[in-house]
Amino acid sequence: MNDIKTLIEVRDKLNEVGKGFCLLKWTQQTLYLQTGDNHSCYHPYPHKIALTDIQRSPAGIHNTAHKKERRKQMLSNERPDECYFCWQVEDNGHISDRIINSANDITQFDVIKNLSSEADYNPSFIEVNFGNVCNFMCGYCTPTVSNSWINDIAKNGEFPVKTNQYKIDFIRDREYYESDDENNPYVKAFWEWWPDLVTDLKTLRITGGEPMLNQNTWQLLDKLEAEPAPHLTLLINSNLGVKPGLIERLSQRVRTLLQKKCIKDYRMHVSIDTWGKPAEYIRYGLDCDIFEKNLITIMDNFKDINASIEIMVTYNNLVLPSFRQLLIKIQEWRKLYGDRLEFITPHLKEPAHWSINILPKSFVKYIDNDIEFMQQQGFNPIEIERLDRVRSHMINYTYPVDVEYNAKSDFYNFFTEHDRRRGTNFIEVFPEYKDFFNDCKKYTLHTPI
Q1: In angstroms, how far is the first alpha carbon of the chain from the final one?
Q2: Do residues 335 and 367 lie in contact, with contact meaning Cβ atoms separated by under 8 Å?
Q3: Which of 18, 66, 380, 413 could disulfide-pair with 77, CB 3.0 to 4.6 Å?
Q4: Minimal CA–CA distance to 139: which of 422, 408, 361?
């Protein structure tokens, strides 16, 4: 993990090319092969990979016409609109993900700054989503990455909210390829690109859905054993809610790859946002006891090899009062496993009714107290900085009136419907939100904006 001084140096180096220059548009890629969408980080909304992109070349799965236009802007000292999150972070005086993530590929700086914006470039980091098969139905998630959401909406109908992702048309308007569909042109393009891609690839991250429920994950592990890539770091995302037998199977497969030097090292990224009943409410399908058991199984299996775990927190508006409990659990796990356990706290931006920016400013006290706790307990300065920039965003960013109005209406309607469908009770799990919840009800009683 880079220190603040190094990141400031990276920022200044990037800004020599342009205030909007970000290496991720070249070096990083997230692929949603079940729908044919991609983006180079989570902040810009995914864009469609045109069939003409991959007909030109399988490398077009990353080097799309859309992305090349954004690259051109970055090389011309412009800030692409789709990257607004980082511009807000930087304008508020913080270190953005543009800087943090570009630092990982700064050795490619001279090559990329001199490239034509039209040139194809093999990324050093790929995150690939082979399908949306998932055993969870996280409240802020979408049918794009969870077929459990598709099944729920098909069975129970739309949620009574304005947010589009819970609508039947959201599903109908998209082409979803099943995980085993041999006619998926995007999966075909990925495997055609693979022999050329793997020579430049430093990090491969497999995500989902739940990757362990997708046959392509196991196929890729087979390929790495048959055709080693000893320079490659392998990452796998998981909700850690699968049966322990799958966790053990994955652990043994990864151990084999490492012992045979088929890959360089391994990291596992696991998703949880807080701890206890609030976490289980937010990420429907989660059982914290199973999560912890599976996490310990992985860490115990990897004690003697080069492997680590990163906890990915999607910092949303239900996290604040209970987040301390997750910080305490992280401390417990670090006593057992040390610095091999890391965590990050990107905040959720969409859908708006899950955003921290619709909460009363009085809720900032929870973040203030957690930052103080982290400082006192010796958490890494970058971890503290990440949470501090969440705080800054909550304080400094205000939604337009119409967006806030609709988001608060959706907040009440979504969780009321959630309780009806899931047999849960919002106020029992989140008593700190009683006044806010009732206030949001008022927004449902008037004409929507």
Answers
A1: 45
A2: no
A3: 18
A4: 422
User: What is the phi-psi region of residue 49: left when phi exceeds 0, alpha when psi lies from -120 to 50, beta otherwise?
Assistant: beta
Strands 125-129 and 47-48: unpaired
Residue 9 has, within 13 A of its CA and on its CB side, a CA count of 8
Q: List helix spans (H) across 235-363.
A: 244-259, 277-282, 288-301, 323-337
Q: How confident is the model at residue 102, as a pLDDT?
A: 94
The model's pLDDT over 273-288, given as tens digits with 9 standing for 90+, comes to 999 999 999 999 999 9
User: Token pair of 248, please?
Assistant: 């053990």
pLDDT mean across residues, the chain:
93
Extract the tokens encoding 38: 């991609």
The amino acid at residue 36 is G
- Centre a 10 Å sphere on the Cβ of residue 48 and count the other Cβ atoms it contains: 15
pLDDT at residue 434 tops 60 = yes
| pLDDT computed for residue 73 by the predictor | 96
Give CA–CA dist 250/91, Å, rounded: 43
Name the token pair of 342.
Answer: 């890391």
Distance CA 252, CA 257 (A): 9
Statement: residue 202 has pLDDT above 90:
yes
User: Do residues 63 and 121 touch, judged by C-beta distance below 8 A?
Assistant: yes
**Cα of 154 vs its chain's centroid, Å:** 26
Distance from C-alpha of 14 to C-alpha of 17, rounded to nearest angstrom? 6
CB 95 within 8 A of CB 4: yes
From CA 176, how far away is CA 171, in angstroms rounded?
Answer: 8
d(CA 323, CA 273): 8
Q: Which residues, in sequence order, are CB contacts of 231 under 8 Å at separation 6+? A: 202, 264
Q: What does the pLDDT average to over 24-42?
A: 93
- Give 169-179 pLDDT, tens digit per residue: 877 766 777 76
Instruction: List strands edge to edge, sheet with 307-312.
Output: 47-48, 37-39, 28-32, 125-129, 203-207, 233-238, 265-271, 307-312, 341-344
Handedness of CA 376, 381, 382, 385 (dihedral sign): positive
Instruction: Identify whether the C-beta of residue 201 lies closer than 8 Å to the C-beta of residue 124.
Output: yes
Per-residue pLDDT for 145 more than 90? no
Paired tokens of 1: 């993990």
Give the C-alpha separation, 241 to 295, whole Å: 10
Tell me the C-alpha distance between 158 and 430, whole Å.
24
Task: Round to whole Å and give the CA distance between 3 and 205.
Answer: 24
The amino acid at residue 69 is E
